[in-house]
Amino acid sequence: MTNELTGKEVETVRDIDYLKLLARQYPTISAATTEIINLQAILDLPKGTEHYISDVHGEFESFRHVLKNASGVIRNKINDLYGNTLRESEKKALATLIYYPAEKLDMLDINEREIDDWYRIHLFRLIEVCKRVSSKYTRSKVRKAFPKEFAYILDELLNENEDRINKYDYYNKIIETIIDLDRARAFIIAISNLIQRFAVDRLHIIGDIYDRGPGADIIMDMLKEYHSLDIQWGNHDMIWMGACAGSEALIANVVRITARYNHLELLEDRYGINLLPLATFAMENYGSGELSKFMPKGVEVTEKNQKELELIAKIHKAIFLIQMKVEAEIIYRHPEYGMSDRMLLDMIDYEKGTVKVDGVEYELNSTEFPTIDPKNPFILTEAEKDILERLKRSFMNSMRLNDHVQLLFSKGSMYKVFNGNLLLHGCMPMNDDGDFNEITIDGERYKGKAALDELDRLARQGYFNNDPVLKEQGLDAMWYLWCGPSSPLFGKRKMATFERYYIDDKAPHAEEKNPYYRDRERPDRIEMILEEFGLDKEHGHLVNGHVPVKVVKGESPIKADGKLLVIDGGFAKAYQKETGIAGYTLIYNSHGLNLVSHEPFESTQKAILEEKDIVSTVMVLESVRSRRRVADTDTGKELKSQVEDLLQLVNAYRKGYIKEIIQTAYENR
Ligand SMILES: O=P(O)(O)OC[C@H]1O[C@](O)(COP(=O)(O)O)[C@@H](O)[C@@H]1O
Ligand SMILES: [Mn+2]
C-alpha cells in the first residue's frame, strides 16, 4: 500500500511509480495542465476522415487515382468552397491540378505574359483548399506534414494571423515572392500533395492488393509512403506472404496466377525471381501438348506474340502440376484440414482419361501428364524438386518482395477493429445452424475471434520463425488461409482450380460458399459477429471485400440493414463485366458514412486530359446530426485516459505526493 495514493480526495487509486514516470515528461503542474488543455482541444476537433478501399488486385493506376481524389473528398471540399462562384469546368480543372500537379503544369498552354496571373490565382485557390482540408487537425499535426523547404511559408499562409495589420499585403507579398523566385511550380506540387495528405486521416485496405492486375508491387510502394494505414490480409496477399516465407505450395500458386494473367515480368524484372529453370523445364516437358486452357488471360494471340504466349502457357501448366503435388503433401500432413478430397491426382484414371470429383466421374479434357507417375502421382520428379528449391531461394531472398511482405506484416492483420467497426476481408466462417465454425489447428480447437487470432499468429510464425517445425506449421496455416474451407480469407468449400483446367463439364467448377454468405443478409447474424469482437451491435458495422458485388444483377453492397458493407465492386478489370462498375470505396467522416461507387478507370492520361474523376455516385449511409468528434473515436478514448492520468498527476503534485522537478540553470547547462 505504501506505493499507492491513498488520500481521501483521490478518486482513482493509481500506482505512484507510474505517476513518477509521467512526472518526468510533465515535471511541473504547469506542464501537466498545459498538456491537459491541449488534449482537451484535440478531443473537440472533428473526427478525421477514414478511407476504405478493397480488392485492388494490382490495378495500380486506378488505385493511385482513388488515393489522389480520396473518393471524392477533395472534389467535395472544392464544391463547399466555391459553390456557385466557380464554373464546373474550373472546379474540375482545380481538382485535376491537385491530383496530378506536375503533369497538369507540364500541359499548361499559357503565354509568358499571363502565366504569373495564372500562378497567382491558382496559388490562392490551393491555399484556400489546403486551409479547408487541414482545419480538422491541430496546428502541430499540420506543421509536421509540411515539406521542409516550404515549411515556413506554409505555416505563415495557412495560419495567417487574423489580427495582423496589412495582412492582405503580407499574404500577397509571399505569393509574389514565390512567383518571382521561380518557385511557383515546386510550391504548387508541394501544396497539392499536402491537400491529398490532409483529405484522408486514415486509410484502410480490406485485402487483395495482389494478383490479376499488373502492379501490386507499385501499390505496395505507394502504401509504404502513406501517412497512416492498416491492411487486412486478403487470400491473394497471403499467397505472396507465404511464398516469400518459403512455402512451396504458395510459391507454385503465385507463379501460376502470375503466368495466368500474363504478368511474369512482375516476378522476373521487379521482384528478381529467376524463372529460367522453370521455363526450360516447361519447354522440355510440355513441348507439344494441348495448351488452350493455360493460355494467359486478357491477351489476344497474334503472330508476333504467339510463341511467347505459348511459352507462358507451358510454364503455367508445368507449375500447376507441381502445385497439385506439393499441396497434396500439406493435405496429407493435416488430416484436420478435412481436404483429402482435393488430392485429385489420386482420383484420376490415367488410362481411361477420367477423374472422380466428389464421387462423380468426369471426362478429362486432356490426358497429357508427362511429369506424373500414375502409380505415385504425388511424387515430385528430381527436376521438379530442383526447380522448387531454386524458386524458393529466389522468393526468400528477393529484397523487394521481403520489403513489401514486411509491410504487410507490420501494417496488416487478419482483421481490424477500428472506431467501432470490424474490418475483415472474407467472412466469419459459420456452420449451417448459424454458429461459428470450429477449426482444429495443430490439435487445438478454436472458433470465432479466437480462431482468427490464432491464424494471425501462425502466419507471423511462418515468416518470422526459423525453427523448421514451427516454420512449417506457420507456412501450412498460410496455405490453409489461401484455400481452406473454413478460412476467413477464402470462405468456400473448395477452390476448383483443377476442375476449371481439366474438366469441361461446368458442374464441378462451382465453389460452394460458406453459410456466412447466405446468412450475411440477416442483421442478427452480423450483430452476433460484432459482439464476438466486443463491438456495439447497434452502431457498429462489418466491412468486407473479397466477393465482387454484381451491381448489374441488382446486387447491393449494403446488407443486413446497413450493418454489413461489401466494398469489392471489382477494381480488377477481369471482373468488371460481372460487376458493372469499377469498385466501391467507403468514406467515414465527421458527418457520417458514405458509400462511393466508381466508374471504370481507363488511364491516368485520360484522367488528366479529360479531367475525369470516376466517382460516379455517393450514397449517404448514415449521417449524424451533431458532428462526430475525436472524442468519439478510438484515439479519443486513448486521449481521455491520458487526460485522466494527467489529472491524477496534477492532484499528486497538489497533494504533495510528488515533487515538481525544476532544474537549476546550472543543471540545464
Ligand atoms: O478468376 P480466376 O483467375 O479464374 O480465379 C478464380 C479463383 O479465384 C478465387 O475466386 C479466389 O480469388 P478472390 O479472392 O479474388 O475471390 C477462387 O475462389 C477461384 O477459384
Ligand atoms: Mn479475396
Description of the molecule:
There is one protein chain. The protein has 669 residues and is an alpha/beta fold. The protein contains 28 helices and 17 strands. It folds into 3 domains: 16-45 and 644-668, no CATH class; 69-199, no CATH class; 216-502, no CATH class. It is 49% helix and 10% strand. The strands form 4 sheets. A 7-stranded mixed sheet has the order 7-3-2-1-15-16-17. Strands 8-9-12-14-13 form a 5-stranded mixed sheet, with helices on one face. Strand 8 and strand 9 form a beta hairpin. The radius of gyration is 29 Å and the shape is globular. Residues 7-12 have low confidence and may be disordered. The structure holds 1,6-di-O-phosphono-beta-D-fructofuranose and manganese (II) ion.
Give the structure's gist in a few sentences:
The chain is of the alpha/beta class and 669 residues long.
The strand line-up of the biggest sheet is 7-3-2-1-15-16-17
Q: What's the rounded overall pLDDT mean?
A: 92
**Fraction of residues in helix:** 40-55%
Q: Which descriptor suits the 3D outline?
A: globular
Residue windows where pLDDT falls under 50 for at least 5 positions: 7-12
Write the layout of secondary structure elements.
Blueprint: H1 16-25, H2 29-43, E1 50-53, H3 60-69, H4 73-82, H5 88-99, H6 101-106, H7 112-134, H8 139-144, H9 151-158, H10 167-180, H11 184-199, E2 202-205, H12 216-225, E3 229-232, H13 235-245, H14 248-260, H15 264-270, H16 276-285, H17 306-333, E4 348-349, E5 354-357, E6 360-363, H18 382-397, H19 399-411, E7 412-413, E8 415-418, E9 421-424, E10 438-441, E11 444-447, H20 449-464, H21 468-483, H22 497-502, H23 516-519, H24 523-532, E12 542-544, E13 558-559, E14 564-566, H25 576-579, E15 584-589, E16 592-598, H26 604-609, E17 615-623, H27 634-655, H28 665-668
Parallel strand pairs: 1-2, 2-3, 3-7, 9-12, 12-14
Antiparallel strand pairs: 1-15, 4-5, 5-6, 8-9, 10-11, 13-14, 15-16, 16-17
Helix pairs in contact: 1-27, 2-27, 4-5, 4-7, 7-11, 13-14, 13-19, 13-20, 13-21, 14-17, 16-17, 20-21
The chain binds 1,6-di-O-phosphono-beta-D-fructofuranose (FBP) and manganese (II) ion.
The site of manganese (II) ion has 6 residues, from helix 13.
